[in-house]
Amino acid sequence: MSPADPRPDPRPVIAAVRDGRGLDAAGAALIARGLADGSVSDAQAAAFAMAVLLRGLDEAGRVALTRAMRDSGDVLRWDLPGPVVDKHSTGGIGDTVSLVLAPLVACCGAYVPMISGRGLGHTGGTLDKLEAIPGFRTALPEAEFRRVTGQVGCAIVAAGRELAPADARLYAIRDESATVGSIDLITASILSKKLAAGLDALVLDVKQGSGAFLRGPDAALALARALVDTATGAGCRTRAYVTDMDQPLARAAGNALELREAITVLTGGQGALRDLSLALSSACLELVGLTGASQALESGAAAERFARMVAAQGGPADLLEHPDRHLPSAPVIRAVPGHGRVAAIDTEALGHAVVALGGGRLHARDRIDPRVGLAQMLRIGEEAGEGRPLALVHAASEAAADAAAATVAAAYLLGDGPEPGPLIRSEVR
After folding, report:
1. What is d(CA 141, CA 130) in angstroms, rounded to the nearest whole number?
2. DSSP state of 288
3. I want to staple 360 with a disulfide (CB 3.0 to 4.6 A). Which of 3, 70, 229, 355 is the partner?
4. Is the pLDDT of residue 3 over 70?
5. If you average pLDDT over residues 147-170, what whole number do you get?
6. Which pLDDT does position 160 carry in this prediction?
7. What element of type H or E holds 112?
């Protein structure tokens, strides 16, 4: 590069963060552009991430980094006759809220262009669940993404390479540099992708408990506050909820099994998944001055909208009427016996059992078996006994079922214990 056009030097920006002098908008833009175009090296990116982890950013620095990472690629603009909203979860076991919320909110006058991710580690991913549907396409070109969103009111897709490319690079480097735990970097990562979708409002579900990335209440609440403050500072109306992950949200974990749970909720089923889906949908609507979530669910309008979305993205038009005709089933089903009251659950262990069955991935390129997982899982306070196992293992082989059954049995603590905590632990506005 010629002396008249020198390559921007990220080292002063890294040093400023390292020395506690913070991150301004110009420095954040330099780092984000360099992550996207490769002018910031892997070593410099890792040094920046470590500096942020050790010294932290103030609210202005988090907003600057989030905006810069958002603007490192395309930012969608919408011309629709209603507000554009979305919801994001930090990940858990049996968390299938997105599949209920997107069509439910769309029935009430808002639009939901949901850009989702895949599962990694012990938590499941929305895209993996949808891809258990034969023909369903999550990789839509932008023009088709816009068409489906406009015509149906919602679409759930994978992020294209052009959205927040700085985050894609920094995300991988955080994993390699042991800086995943930085609340500042987590906040910028989540929000840069969501805000690149051109949202008017966003609801965040921060999980806390034995199956969550953040187990402790203080850490979960700190992340929720950082997310709300940063998104609001970046110009997006936002609300966050800290919700229970001391037990699976739904009674199933595993891709096709969770799809069946979502369909059950959309067609009248009760339980925690329904309750949280309604609460988060209502919050999305309230942020943009709309109502009607309960009526849309109870009337069947949300189920009909879900069916339209599935068909518009390549899936079968009769999935709701005939889920067993289209969704794959595992060849081995094994009951996990138990006797007594469920006092506590190691929810992360249940997630790892699903991964070991083939229903999740430890590495990004791992293939997923959509058939396998856990079903009919008991919840805290319920009694196991004759005719009521702890869970049903759905497996590809007898050996896999044996291993998963042992893991599930060990994950359940039976005996006396406190009543389960509330589904929603706290709210941040």
Report:
1. 17
2. T
3. 355
4. no
5. 93
6. 82
7. strand 112-116
Q: What is the model's pLDDT at position 1?
A: 43
What span, in angstroms and rounded, lies between the C-alpha atoms of 30 and 27?
A: 5
| Spatial CB neighbours of 238, under 8 Å, sequence gap ≥ 6 | 201, 202, 203, 204, 227, 228, 231, 232, 287
Q: Which amino acid is present at 87?
A: K
- Paired with 383 in beta bridges are 341
Residue 335 DSSP SS3: strand
- Work out the burial of residue 320: count CB atoms within 10 Å of its CB; fewer than 13 is exposed, 13-18 middle, 19 or more buried: middle
Cβ atoms 88, 205 nearer than 8 A:
yes
Mean pLDDT of all residues belonging to the chain: 95
Query: Are the beta carbons of 102 and 277 closer than 8 angstroms?
Result: no
d(CA 80, CA 206): 29
DSSP classification of residue 84? B
Residue pair 206/222 in contact (Cβ under 8 Å)? The answer is no
d(Cα 198, Cα 233) in Å, to the nearest integer? 15
pLDDT tens-place string over residues 53-77? 999 999 999 999 999 999 999 999 9
Reported as a pLDDT band with limits 50, 70 and 90, residue 6 is low
Q: How many Cβ atoms sit within 10 Å of the Cβ of residue 178? A: 11
Instruction: Return the percentage of the chain with pLDDT > 90, whole number.
Output: 88
Residues with catalytic function: 86-89, 126, 174, 189, 193-194
Residue 256 tokens read as: 């096709």
Running DSSP on this structure, what letter comes out for residue 202? E
Q: What is the mean pLDDT of residues 385-394?
A: 96
Instruction: Name residue 242's beta-bridge partners.
Output: 206, 426
Cα dist from 172 to 75, 144, 290, 307, whole Å: 22, 28, 38, 35
pLDDT band at 410 (very low <50, low <70, confident <90, very high): very high
- The three-state secondary structure class of 156 is strand
Please check the confidence at residue 401 and state whether its pLDDT lies above 60. yes
Q: Are 133 and 287 in contact (CB under 8 A)?
A: no
Angle between helices 183-195 and 59-70 (to 10 degrees): 40
CA distance 302 to 100: 8
How far is the C-alpha of 160 from the C-alpha of 115, rounded, in Å? 9
Residue length of the chain: 429
* 414: pLDDT strictly greater than 60: yes
CA distance 361 to 326: 23
